[in-house]
UniProtKB/TrEMBL annotation:
GO cellular component, one term: cytoplasm
Family matches, as Gene3D superfamilies: 3.30.300.30, 3.40.50.980, ACP-like (1.10.1200.10), alpha/beta hydrolase (3.40.50.1820), Chloramphenicol acetyltransferase-like domain (3.30.559.10), Luciferase, Domain 3 (2.30.38.10), Nonribosomal peptide synthetase, condensation domain (3.30.559.30)
Record-linked NCBIfam families: AA-adenyl-dom (TIGR01733)
Pfam families recorded: AMP-binding, AMP-binding_C, Condensation, PP-binding, Thioesterase
UniProt KW keywords: Phosphopantetheine, Phosphoprotein
GO biological process: amino acid activation for nonribosomal peptide biosynthetic process; lipid biosynthetic process; secondary metabolite biosynthetic process
Region (Disordered): 983-1009
Name the UniProt record assigns to this protein: Amino acid adenylation domain-containing protein
Carrier domain ranges (all copies): 1007-1083
Cofactor(s) the protein needs: pantetheine 4'-phosphate
One term of GO molecular function: catalytic activity
Origin species: Micromonospora halophytica
């Protein structure tokens, strides 16, 4: 306690409070006075605003820098020399315009030149009349502004004068934003006008002097917060940004794999009425106008993205101290705003929420965004900026007041978009310049993601939404409309298919008409046997008569459980002729499920074949076995019975599986089938000459298309038998021999066929699931290919797209068919704009009557049409997610209830599946999200056509195509994907990843386990991991192992099997199978040595001498880049397994474990001696050009010393990555008790134990003297190590700790060094900066010293190492 604090503590409480208050006032006054001159123009660090912008602008070294282009149109007699002179004077006055940003040892610095050359080239615009040169001049300005900046050059800005005419010029002054923000441009213009006037008149301009420069400001700003305040603010943002999710704003194109920076801009207006009401609302709730406008923007994002948790960036223009009021520079910083829009609040409430968030963000500001990224730890995605991708800001009219003019020159600003930007979009709304004047809105957007038309639509919707929200601020957000009448009309028209009369007819009427027209034409072909229309009709009539005898009539339902034969078609027609509806039953389904469906459908009778007896064995109603009634049928009348069904009667009931697993029956009517058949006849130009393939199961509604598009058109139905459906060769042969002209096949079947063989095929109808553009390109040459969409609830298909030409991606599903409607709606059943995902809600002539006996579900899914557009007045909620393109077509995005989000990032499973299908030889694949026992979600890839041995290659294949967060965590190899009867992947039957298979039975390919494998599993791994189900091929670490357990495993193997397994064997494949093989090989080699040497005790070789070269352990095979890992204080390398696995596949990994000789050296000499042996090994082995040394804790210090010695001996300077490593951490010498306590703590943490009792060990006197094993046992740590092994491990730890304390780098190191700390650690950073003369970079990751190799820190560590290797 100092004298001052003692005196302060002695004061009475009121006096002390008064004194502290005055002290705070004084400190605030000093801070308010702002920076003071530093007295030189030497290099200075970047300001926080510069550092933040650089962070976004430069995700990779030498990335493009965004600019702030200023373009003036100057009309009049321009004095070119005076303009040049004025520009030179402004540049000479402001350091920022003479600055370059360079990488120095201390990080990024801005270096000011005393003077820079100021050139103003004049370019003549091309063109004959005045309009052409002006257009050419503007195009040239945009082209120049689009060029990237090189901030290491001097000057960093560029200027050009484009002559349109003798008295008309465009003046472009383009400066990097990191040196000059938008408000500073007004200052620049004012001074340019002052100096121009002075130069033109010959007077010496005398603007007020500048007391400080921007570098003074940067230094002052960095000194305002002490370390305690920085830590407090970091803690605030860690809490504030916890669980932050990416805002997935709908784009016109998919993102590239890495960020792109090319941008364009648009200028729009926001109506003055809305702006004035926004101001009134701001005053009413004691908020700023900016808060109201930002809240409206959050409402827009909510509408477009469909989520409640939203994050954007927003400029925070700090109030400039008076000393820098006249400075040009970057004073506008970016802050993070996270808003909660949940609960459908009133707009007034949302404004208040945003006002609180904004005030807190301002109060807790002053931290670099890199620090915020560290604490938030978002998923690393190279395709987008971290934290936020959209910026919305409000500028006052003061910063955009009328352009200062040059004397005698009509001066106006020209809008020029910046050429690059790190953000997806940046919105800048400028307040009204006067009452009754609209506000201006500028939007800069990434051209790789958005089209100009889309951005204009965003602006219109913001304007409309602001009008609606401010007009009724107490209404819920959902009540505010943003679509214009024209948009609503377009969406309504796009939702409607062509309209034509719906014929009031039935399937039976239409079929009998075809029979009447061509009775001898072939109707059905099955297994080569042809049946005419007349014969089919007669067979159906006889069976209908039998059904009537069995009390089947109008309104009844009949089950059909039949093999694929002529009887199926006959039975369908017979049921319909009896006036009943048919209910298809699958002959392969379990009898319980068949009985469940038959009971739910209340079928009157079931028609079956004899071989379906097992399937119908539990059905409670009469079963008519057709094989048994052939004679009875022959005696029944074959003439057409009276028409028994009406157009509105149910024709069939198809059961689909619901989300609960309980099947639900969909009721479809005759009228819908007739309308659908009429539509397909028109769409496909079907005639009686067509031959339609019957492939689909009758339990799937595509069979309705196949059967009735043929039979109601007079065409031929070629019904594939079960054998033909299940054999690609037979199916292909059938299609060729039958001359099939029309098919409707699922996308899982088409890739298996050879389209070039089907010369007669003219129509290929594909649907059920999304399919690739490559599939289209294979199948559409020489024929018409259609993508079809339609749930069972709307008669087969109701949206189609003809896929002509060449496709790069999956085609859209298209537009509604005749007499159908397809809306895209939000959760409140409102139309969503073009491009915005929403639920597909459909209706039309084919809409089902509903679900059988499911009134609650009917009320949920079938609803009255609120738009008055659907025939019949009803709509159906499909649960499918789609978006509408600007031309009205629809794109299928997936199921709403199956959206996948992993760690805050939404993932389109189709994108991952598409990447997997590119692997050579792979079959159909599926990717699903799976949750483990702790609730964490992972991606699982299901593969066919490959073996388990291919999985590593598959993983590397997708690693090259997808960002890391989209790569499946697990792969499951299957013989085939389980399919539903409709040919879709049956997701419910996909097995979970089997991480802990029963450790029994078999090894590779079903072979029995070897004796060593069995012993290793039963006696070693199961007890060690407490996992009874571990399998012989399971990965040790995925089955519950960690680095310390790996040490125990190797020790136990040594004791149990009498052999030493090289660490490299473990790293090659840490599975029981591989380790058992290594044990067997080692034992065989030992036996051979015994025979050769005659040594029954198998005495070990002599220990290596003190100068013996140490060989590194190969953790992962060498690649073009190499990471060398140095052991931590525990001496082993197993802690690095997560790191080695996470590094890119092209990176080889080796490591050096502790050598027993290290513990014999004196602490003061040990580090240098250990490093010398390792350095010698590396030098003699040859260092790769791309190589880095890395180490955690003690290993980092050792890596530094190894690199330093290599530099001393060879001049080479390998990169070094220090992972939370420091030397000389303790002020006092380490005693034995402290070392023992730290060893216990280290072992406990490495074994996965944490908590107060573990931390308390560090300060427990008893732990410093007690038996180490007993202390560990008390903490719940059971070690499978002998006393000798534990003592040896402690000796290594002790030697490492003491040598780490004694070590001082003898000389600085000149190579590149990266320091990664667990949390901010300025002391550690400062320690290393002092001994590094080469490039030095420091960053912190979330977590503590022992969590560096677990998520979320691991991804950051990997990124640091990979970036070091690239550099």
């Amino acid at each position: 306690m100092t004298d001052l604090t003692r005196r302060l503590a002695a004061l009475p409480a009121p006096r002390r409070a008064q004194f502290l208050a005055r002290l705070r006032e004084f400190a605030e006054a000093v801070a308010g006075r702002g920076p003071t001159p530093r007295g030189d123009t030497g290099p200075t660090p970047l300001s926080y605003a510069q550092q933040n912008l650089w962070f976004f602008d430069h995700p990779v070294p030498n990335g493009p820098a965004s600019g702030t282009p200023l373009c003036l149109r100057l009309r009049g007699a321009l004095d070119l020399d005076a303009l040049r002179s004025a520009l030179a004077a402004v540049v000479a006055r402001h350091d920022t315009l003479r600055s370059q940003i360079v990488e120095r040892e201390g990080g990024l610095m801005q270096v000011v030149a005393t003077e820079v050359p100021v050139s103003l080239p004049v370019v003549e615009a091309e063109g004959d009349d005045h309009g052409q040169p002006l257009a050419a001049a503007r195009a040239l300005v945009v082209e120049r502004a689009g060029e990237p900046f090189d901030l290491s050059r001097m000057p960093a800005w560029r200027a050009v004068l484009v002559r349109v005419a003798v008295d008309d010029h465009l003046f472009l002054f383009d400066v990097p934003t990191v040196l000059c923000d938008a408000p500073s441009r007004i200052l620049l213009l004012r001074e340019l006008a002052v100096f121009y006037r002075a130069s033109e008149s010959g007077d010496a301009a005398q603007p007020p002097g500048l007391p400080v420069q921007y570098g003074d400001y940067a230094i002052w700003q960095r000194g305002r917060l002490d370390s305690g305040e920085l830590d407090q603010r970091a803690a605030y943002w860690r809490d504030k940004l916890a669980g932050v999710e990416v805002v997935e704003f709908p784009t016109d194109r998919p993102r590239a794999e890495v960020r792109t920076f090319a941008v364009a801009g648009g200028s729009f207006t926001v109506g003055h009425e809305a702006m004035e009401r926004a101001g009134e609302l701001a005053r009413a709730v004691d908020a700023s106008l900016s808060d109201v406008l930002v809240a409206a923007f959050f409402a827009l994002l909510h509408r477009y993205c469909g989520v409640d948790d939203l994050v954007i960036g927003s400029p925070d223009a700090h109030l400039r101290p008076a000393a820098v009021a006249s400075l040009i520079g970057l004073f506008t910083d970016l802050r993070v705003l996270r808003a909660d829009v949940s609960g459908d609040p009133a707009f007034r409430e949302l404004v208040q929420r945003v006002a609180r968030v904004s005030a807190e963000a301002h109060e807790q500001g002053g931290l670099p965004l890199r620090t915020l990224t560290d604490v938030a730890d978002p998923v690393v995605d190279p395709s987008r900026a971290p934290l936020f991708q959209i910026v919305f800001g409000v500028e006052s009219t003061e910063s955009t007041e009328s352009t200062p003019g040059l004397p005698g020159i009509a001066t106006s600003q020209e809008a020029v978009p910046a050429g690059t930007s790190p953000f997806d979009m940046r919105w800048t709304l400028t307040e009204q310049s006067a009452a009754g004047v609209d506000a201006s809105l500028a939007i800069t957007y990434n051209t790789g993601l958005f089209d100009a038309g889309s951005v204009a639509r965003f602006a219109r919707h913001y304007d409309a939404l602001l009008h609606a929200l401010t007009a009724a601020p107490d209404a819920p957000l959902s009540a505010a409309g943003m679509l214009s009448p024209a948009e609503r009309e377009f969406l309504a028209q796009a939702a409607m298919g062509p309209v034509r009369p719906v014929r009031e007819s039935t399937i039976v009427e239409e079929f009998e008409a075809r029979v009447q027209e061509a009775p001898e034409s072939v109707a059905v072909v099955v297994a080569g046997r042809e049946t005419s229309y007349a014969e089919l009709n007669a067979r159906a009539n006889r069976l209908a008569a039998l059904l009537r005898e069995r009390s089947v009539g109008p309104g009844a339902r009949v089950g059909l459980c039949l093999r694929r034969s002529l009887d199926v078609v006959t039975a369908i027609l017979a049921v319909l002729k009896a006036g009943a509806a048919y209910v298809p039953l699958d002959t392969t389904h379990p009898s319980g499920r068949v009985a469940e469906i038959a009971a739910d459908a209340e079928v009157r009778v079931v028609l079956a074949h004899a071989e379906a007896g097992r399937a119908v064995s539990e059905v409670a109603v009469p079963v008519v076995v057709l094989d048994d009634v052939r004679g009875e049928l022959a005696a029944l009348p074959e003439g057409n019975p009276p028409l028994a069904a009406q157009p509105g009667d149910v024709a069939y009931v198809i059961y689909t599986s619901g989300s609960t697993g309980k099947p639900k029956g969909v009721l479809l009517e005759h009228r819908g089938v007739v309308n659908f058949t009429d539509s397909t006849r028109d769409l496909f130009d079907l005639t009686s000459a067509d031959r339609v393939l019957g492939f689909a199961s009758v339990t799937f509604d595509v069979s309705v298309f196949e059967i009735f598009s043929a039979l109601l058109t007079g065409a031929r139905l070629c019904l594939a038998t079960d054998d033909e459906r299940l054999s690609v060769d037979r199916l292909q042969s059938l299609m060729v021999q039958a001359g099939i002209t029309v098919i409707d096949l699922p996308p899982t079947v088409l890739p298996l066929l050879a389209p070039e063989k089907f010369t007669a095929l003219r129509i290929a109808f594909v649907g059920g699931e999304a399919f690739s553009g490559e599939l289209v390109n294979r199948w559409n040459p020489g024929r018409r290919l259609f993508n079809g969409y339609g749930p069972t609830e709307c008669t087969v298909t109701m949206i189609v797209e003809e896929c002509q030409g060449t496709w790069d991606a999956s085609p859209p599903i298209g537009l509604p068919m005749a007499n159908h409607i397809a809306h895209v709606l939000d959760g409140d059943l409102r139309q969503v704009p073009v491009g915005v995902p929403g639920e597909l809600v459909i209706g039309g002539a084919g809409l089902a009557r509903g679900y059988l006996n499911r009134e609650e579900l009917n009320a949920e899914k079938f609803l009255a049409d609120p738009f008055g557009t659907a025939p019949g007045g009803r709509l159906y909620r499909t649960g499918d997610l789609v978006k509408r393109l600007p031309d009205g077509r629809l794109v299928f995005l997936g199921r709403i209830d199956q959206q996948v989000k992993i760690r805050g990032l939404r993932i389109e499973l189709g994108d991952v599946e598409s990447a997997l299908t590119g692997f050579e030889g792979i079959g159909p694949v599926s990717v699903q999200a799976w949750s483990d026992d702790s609730g964490d979600r992972h991606l699982v890839g299901y593969l066919t056509g490959v073996t388990a041995e291919h999985v590593p290659a598959v993983r590397e294949h997708v690693r090259a195509l997808l960002p890391s967060y989209m790569i499946p965590s697990f792969f499951v190899v299957l013989d085939e994907l389980p399919l539903t009867s409709s040919g879709k992947v049956d997701r419910r039957r996909l097995p979970p990843p089997d991480l802990s298979r029963a450790g029994t039975a078999t090894g590779t390919g079903g072979t029995p386990l070897t004796e060593t494998e069995r012993r290793l599993l039963r006696d070693v791994l199961v007890p060690l991991l407490h996992n009874e189900r571990i399998g012989v091929h399971d990965d040790f670490f995925l089955a519950g192992g960690n680095s310390l357990k790996a040490v125990q495993l190797m020790s136990t193997i040594r004791r149990r099997f009498g052999v030493e397994i090289a660490p490299g064997e473990f790293f090659a494949s840490p599975s029981a199978a591989h380790l058992a093989a290594a044990v067997d090989a080692a034992q065989a080699a030992r036996s051979m040595r015994r025979v050769d040497d005659g040594d029954p005790l198998d005495a070990p070789a002599d220990p290596p001498g003190p100068e013996a070269v140490r060989a590194p352990v190969v953790i992962r095979a060498a690649g073009p880049a190499q990471v060398v890992l140095l052991h931590p204080s525990g001496g082993e390398l197993f802690c690095y397994v997560p790191l080695s696995r996470a590094l890119g596949g092209e990176i080889g990994v080796t490591g050096f474990a502790a050598d027993p000789r290290d513990a014999d050296a004196a602490p003061a000499e040990a580090m240098a001696a250990t490093a010398a042996r390792i350095a010698r090994s590396l030098v003699e082995g040859g260092l790769l050009a791309s190589c880095c040394l890395a180490g955690w804790s003690y290993g980092g210090v050792l890596a530094f010393e190894v690199a330093r010695q290599i530099e001393q001996k060879t001049g080479e300077r390998p990169s070094v990555v220090l992972l939370d490593a420091a030397y000389d951490e303790d002020a006092e010498p380490l005693d034995e008790a402290t070392v023992r306590r730290r060893f216990v703590h280290d072992v406990a943490r490495l074994n996965g134990h944490d908590g107060p009792e573990v931390t308390a060990v560090l300060n427990d006197p008893d732990a410093g003297t007690a038996d180490i094993r007993e202390t560990l046992t008390g903490l719940g740590v059971e070690l499978e190590l002998t006393g000798q092994e534990l003592a040896r491990r402690f000796a290594t730890f002790r030697s490492s700790a003491l040598s780490q304390q004694e070590y001082r780098p003898p000389t600085p190191y000149g190579g590149p060094v990266t320091l990664v700390t667990a949390g901010p650690n300025p002391a550690m950073e400062e320690q290393w900066r002092a001994v590094c003369t080469g490039p030095f970079r420091a960053e912190s990751v979330p977590g503590d010293h022992y969590t560096l190799f677990t998520a979320p820190a691991l991804s950051r560590v990997v990124a640091a190492i990979e970036e070091t290797l690239r550099a």
